[in-house]
Design brief:
The complex is a heterodimer.
Chain A lengths: L6 E5 L3 H13 L3 E5 L2 H5 L8 E6 L7 H9 L7 E5 L4 H9 L4 E4 L4 H33 L3 H10 L5 H8 L3 H15 L4 H10 L3 H5 L2
Parallel strand pairs in A: 1-2, 1-3, 3-4, 4-5
Chain B lengths: L14 H18 L3 E8 L2 E7 L12 E3 L6 H8 L3 E3 L20 E8 L5 E9 L7 H42 L3 E6 L6 E4 L1 H7 L9 H8 L2 E2 L6 H15 L1 E10 L5 E11 L2 E8 L1 H23 L3 E6 L3 E5 L3 H5 L3 H6 L8 H19 L5 E10 L5 E12 L6 E9 L1 H54 L6 H28 L8 E3 L1 H18 L3 E5 L7 E3 L1 H18 L9 E9 L3 E8 L6 H9 L13 H10 L3 E7 L3 E9 L8
Parallel strand pairs in B: 19-21
Antiparallel strand pairs in B: 1-2, 1-6, 2-3, 4-5, 5-6, 7-8, 7-12, 9-10, 10-11, 11-12, 13-14, 13-17, 15-16, 16-17, 18-20, 21-22, 22-24, 23-24
Classes of the chains: A alpha/beta, B alpha+beta.
Chain lengths: 210, 669
Amino acid sequence: MSLTEPVVHIVDDDESFRRALARQLRAAGHVVQAHASAEDFLCSPTLHGPGCVILDLSMPKMSGLECQGKLAALDDPLPVVFLTGRGDIPTTVRAMRAGAEDFLGKTAAGPELLAAVDRALARDAAERRQRQEVRARRARLGGLSRRERQVLALVVKGRLNKEIAAALGIAERTAKFHRAAITAKLGLASVAELATLVHEAGGADALRED
Amino acid sequence: MKSTHPMTPEIVIADEMMQDWQSLVDLVVRLAGARVGLIMKVCDDDLKVLVASHTPSNPYEVGDREPLVGSGLYCERVVERQEMLLVPDARRSPEWSNNPDLRHNLVSYLGFPIRWPDGRVFGTLCVLDDKENAHQPATIELVARMRDLIEGHLKLEHALWLEQQLSKESIARRMLDKIPVAVGCALLGSGGTILHVNEQFVRQFGYALAEIPTFDAWVAATRPTPLKHAVPFVEWRMLMRRALQDQGRLAPAEFRFTCKDGGVLDVLVHAALEGDMLVASFIDVTAWNQVGESLRLSEQRHRLMAEHAVDTLWTYDFEKGLTYVSPSIENLTGYTPEECLRLPIEETLAPEAWDKVRKLLGRARAGFRQGRPFRLPPTEVLGRRKDGATVWTEVTASSVFSSDGQRLELVGVTRDISERKRNEEHKQRILAMVNGSQLGLMQEFNASVAHELSQPLGAILRNAEAAAALLERDQPDLAELRTVIADIRSDDRRAAAIIGRIRDLLARRGPRLRPLSLRGEVEDCVDMVRHELAARRIALAVDIPPELPMVAADRVQLQQVLLNLARNAMDALAGQPEETRRIVIAARRLEPAMVELSVRDSGEGIQPEDIDKLFEYYYTTRPEGLGMGLPLSRMIAETHGGRIDVSSTPRQGTEVRLTLQQARGPVTP
């Protein structure tokens, strides 16, 4: 896990506002990177985080929502706080539905704005951690033996040890043994968690690889 | 020899009297010691047994008849000679050898004639025997006296009958005289004697019987002319006579008579012929005819009105449907009145209207049943034309009762309101368009205003908060703080500029009045359209005296109005030949405190009725600003305390006059 300082990105086409906002965030102690357009932002080397992004909704060329859509497609998408000069409800609803962390007016009070940024950063950290864990688990799948993977495949289908033993032509005790090994290696015991892990790893196919 | 007088009917003998006669005959026979006693009556050409004695072996019965003439009866001789006859023994004389009585062995006869009081023969009283009988003189006397008694009875009967007749006659006569219908009778024949006229006749025509003794005299005096026939009276008289003789009566006919006092009467004549006698009644129908005539006139008048009215008048009977529809229905629906009357009412209504109309008719009918009148206030009904197109109409109706109170009719007016509807719809559409576009515009506008302003305002807030945070540091970066303040100032100016622009755009807000020089403002406006004037080859003349007082106006709004007027003037010249394209802008003082600017174009002009339309609808097609047009210009003028007027002479041009208030107070250039 990297220990990079989280970066607060600002994406706004209005120079004056961009400068002022950056100023305020820096004064609050954040590391800030300001971009004049969504295209510029998407080329940023620190695009993949950690951090968060404050997006202006209405910009010429690529709009804030469009940009967020592109972000969401990434492996480690940055949380988004939308800022807008417009106040209409339909836009708000669309933005929130798209998974924004928050949606504020450009003239929102400082504390509110800073709080939203903090929440976004916290969310980013949490999600990052979680993704890291999942990746780790997936890697651990790779550490399973062939037989263990076979057993796991049947476990996630909801089969009992007896059935698994019969299906694989092994003794029930052997099956139980394999199951314990799986639990130890993956750090997960419940069928549901195992199934999720397997599913996230690519499903039953991932287990068939040799 | 006729035994019945044509004028007197048969008198019927009362039963009581017959009984008396029966006893009389029985008595006579016994006293005479004879076999048969009879009372014979002459009936038409026969002798009839009226009374027969109740003696054994009386061969005769009541009702037996023998022909009167040529039968050889004893009674025949008596009736013929009207004197007593005594035949002691018929066997002794050959003249009685054919007597039918001999069959019954009745050989002797004693008979007397019985006469009516007026001398006519009634019949005989006789006594017959089957043996020779010369009768004692006392017997003969007795029978004669009996005969007298019978004649006495007849006298009584006759007197009673006569009295009855007279009394009936007098009733009839009274009736005839008092009846309030003129009646008269006359004998047909040359001249025609008038037998009788009743009191009403005399009253009606003014002539007493003595003055008009004959039919001809009466005709000459009253000069009747047949109404409704073009035939002269003389000819008509012949036809009348023939008809009377053929059929015995005449069909009622109307004549016009001249009365003695010169007045003229319309009379309905009925007549019948009985033998030679003509009886006629004369009913005065003058009043009827007058009423009929005035009704006819009134009907004609109403019909004329209905036919010439633009709206369609109609009457509708619940049983029969439409009973009348005025000719204008053809304009309205394309159906002729005749076609309409034949069609079911649904054909002239759009399907959408059927339900509504059915309900209305139901209400009318229900009202009729409850004796309530029905009034339909003006109601919109969608009609259908012959070609299938729909037409909006307005229907008004009232219920009327037929004269016998049994039938209900609806009387109504239907008016074509398609024009009105079109105007309404047009207005609605325009308003919707205006509102919609304005609303949309406003929404867009609001959103973009909010967005635009939020940039500088947001920046200002952010900067201020950043500055506050920076100041919290132990060693505040003063250079940075100065930059922040500078930024804030700049953003404030930016915001102010935006707000100013917004104000300018929103012309509807209250004007910010300034003293302005019209001359200068017009010059500015002309500058803006100079190139367009040149392109359209329009000659412009500006005539504004320099000493014209300043006007109080909002510069931006005034510019917009001037631009609008200029553009309208330019558009008015579009179709004109180039050499005639002229616009003149002039201004003058208008006492006491106004200034009038006039923009005149040499275009085609506007019809007087169209001038109002200019201000009525949002006719603009140009998307400039928020849609400035004449209505808005007028509104701006009015909020300035001024006005806009338009006058136009067709084929000469249009003049638009803008009146504004003179600026008061100190003048600042």
